[in-house]
From TrEMBL:
<feature type="compositionally biased region" description="Basic residues">
    <location>
        <begin position="102"/>
        <end position="119"/>
    </location>
</feature>
<keyword id="KW-0808">Transferase</keyword>
<feature type="region of interest" description="Disordered">
    <location>
        <begin position="1"/>
        <end position="152"/>
    </location>
</feature>
<comment type="pathway">
    <text>Glycan biosynthesis; glycogen biosynthesis.</text>
</comment>
<keyword id="KW-0328">Glycosyltransferase</keyword>
<feature type="compositionally biased region" description="Low complexity">
    <location>
        <begin position="130"/>
        <end position="152"/>
    </location>
</feature>
<dbReference type="Pfam" id="PF08323">
    <property type="entry name" value="Glyco_transf_5"/>
</dbReference>
<feature type="compositionally biased region" description="Basic and acidic residues">
    <location>
        <begin position="45"/>
        <end position="101"/>
    </location>
</feature>
<dbReference type="InterPro" id="IPR001296">
    <property type="entry name" value="Glyco_trans_1"/>
</dbReference>
<comment type="function">
    <text>Synthesizes alpha-1,4-glucan chains using ADP-glucose.</text>
</comment>
<feature type="domain" description="Glycosyl transferase family 1">
    <location>
        <begin position="468"/>
        <end position="618"/>
    </location>
</feature>
<feature type="domain" description="Starch synthase catalytic">
    <location>
        <begin position="178"/>
        <end position="414"/>
    </location>
</feature>
<protein>
    <recommendedName>
        <fullName>Glycogen synthase</fullName>
        <ecNumber>2.4.1.21</ecNumber>
    </recommendedName>
</protein>
<dbReference type="Pfam" id="PF00534">
    <property type="entry name" value="Glycos_transf_1"/>
</dbReference>
<keyword id="KW-0320">Glycogen biosynthesis</keyword>
<feature type="binding site">
    <location>
        <position position="190"/>
    </location>
    <ligand>
        <name>ADP-alpha-D-glucose</name>
    </ligand>
</feature>
<dbReference type="InterPro" id="IPR011835">
    <property type="entry name" value="GS/SS"/>
</dbReference>
Amino acid sequence: MKGRVVVAQKKAQSTQKKTAEAKGASTSAKKPAESVKAAPVKSEPVTKTEPAAKAEPAKKTEPAAKAEPAKKTEPAAKAEPAEKVEPAKKAEPAEKVEPAKKAKPAAKKPAAKKTKPAAKKAVAEETKPAEPAAEAAPVAEQPAAPAAETVAAAEPVAEPVVEAAPAQPQYDTPRRSVAFIGSECHPFVKTGGLGDVMYALPRELVKQNCDVRVILPRYACIPQKYQDKMVYRGEFYMDLGETGRSYYVGIMEYIWDGVVYDFIDNQEFFSAGNPYVGLVEDIPKYCFFSKAALAALNYMNWIPDIIHCHDWQAALVPVFQKTLFKDSPVGHAKSVLTIHNLRFQGIYNIPTIRYWTGLPAEVFNMGALQQAWRDANMLKGGLAYADRITTVSNTYAWEIQTPEYGEKLEDHLRYHSYKLRGIVNGIDYGMWNPATDPALAVNYDITNVLERKPQNKLALQKELGLVEDEGKLVVGLISRLTNQKGLDLVNAIVPQIMDGNTQVVVLGTGDKEYEDTFRYYENAYKGMFSACIQYDESRAHRIYAGADVLLVPSRFEPCGLTQLNAMHYGTLPIVRETGGLKDTVEPYNVFNGGGNGFTFDRYDAGLLLDAINRAKTEYFTSRYHWDEVVQRDMAKDVSWTNSARQYKDLYLELTPW
Ligand code: ADP
């Protein structure tokens, strides 16, 4: 989610440029189409490829026809091409399927190990159109279906790299297969909480008797060490909306801790240095991704019980599933759409989204994608078509049905509230564990936190150039620096917080106004205020360990992970009572010493200051009780176990066999 915001800024700069690019893209998209039509007539391309393909094609195609074809591809193909292309279909199918085959043989293995090959293929895709012509005949027999099948057959697939499959315990619930579809996943690419969830939840579901496959874009910005571990799984070509083109879809696979990660490859869409670039580019990108993810499941003949998609980038999946793919194998899976942040919805004008999706006219109505008469809203469509909707806390599930938090979808959400529920996020105990965390100066657990946490505080003060004194109250803030996070409240009261016994450490990037204000305070309160305007995972861990309290005064917060990380590291959260913050932080009770942190309700700087002052009072005058809360927070179960169980229950509700 963060990325979206950061991106939004960058985008603003390049929007105009992009608009132009987008038009160019559209143009280029159309051109290929034209060339495709022309290509069939040509025989040259074929000649070129022929050599490599000659021998194999024959083998590949035949098997394909016999085995899989019928089931997998056919449906998928039927759905899409059927409506739009049908007439032209005859010619196209041939083009699509065959080209894929021909090219593969040669590229296959190289692609398996290196990332570059993929790019070449994508490029090849554009030129291939010509080749298809040659093989039109064989393909013709099995219209669209052939494309996928043939490809499948042709790609017996290299053996994936398998790392440490966990031992399978005894399960108390039946097995279910789940395909996670989303735009980011730690450690491959992460800009916010979504990346954490896409990493941790599948791993926990595996432990709870689920067969999980995570489908992600193969962004060029994924670190090379992960690209190197991916193994070529296959490729095929796919129609996309009204582009008139057949797009390359490569599948690169990596199996890790029992979870299968399938990366959808097409460098035409995923070559930017950041996953999110701006709506002009992101809309086509995620239209392609959503459709390609479903087509890939058909292609791999891995049809899950549940398709679990996340946020607007994958929100079209249920829409595609119930329209263009409804007669294909994946069309029968149940769908769950999780809202991680309702603010981001993927809104663009209807003609553009229709162009990139080819979705039938009936989905562009006010009950589904249409919004405000002229625009299409991808998330809104997904909410209408998904079998179940979840969001990441109970309170947020309720809040988003109100005008204050509904981001203009409150009516739509109320209408679909019968299928909406909240399931709070957890944190991954492997990633967040003060007893083993390699980033910390000193590791600790609940038995020695009271002695060792101060050592981490001193190390943090030294690292950041603050006055080294374990007696100071260190207030941490780790956040995207955006309007959502309540930073205007913080900025308004910093002078009143700085009393000589309090230090503030900020870690984050985002809106310039916040970055500059925090830099100003660092200069104004030398040795007592540190503004780390950066994204630094390792430093974040050290702040969780070294701070005494962590501020999360958000305007709205679907779930929030920083308060969970903080509690697990014995750092008391100071939060606004909204969304997941309200569900996970019980207010400290001065009368009986209960609770986990300090809270305030209305979005008001005075109330935030009051909460901070209550924390200071406890810290400086009642350390015994403070220490009890520290230990209680560390003992609190904020793991994924319980939350994953609720997701599993939801899956079982949808598949009661
Ligand atoms: P959101 O998804 O809205 O950004 P969350 O609280 O759900 O907020 O998730 C934020 C995650 O990103 C946490 O794991 C937090 O530690 C991490 N994070 C946020 N900002 C930074 C930063 N500047 N450097 C390192 N990690 C950060």
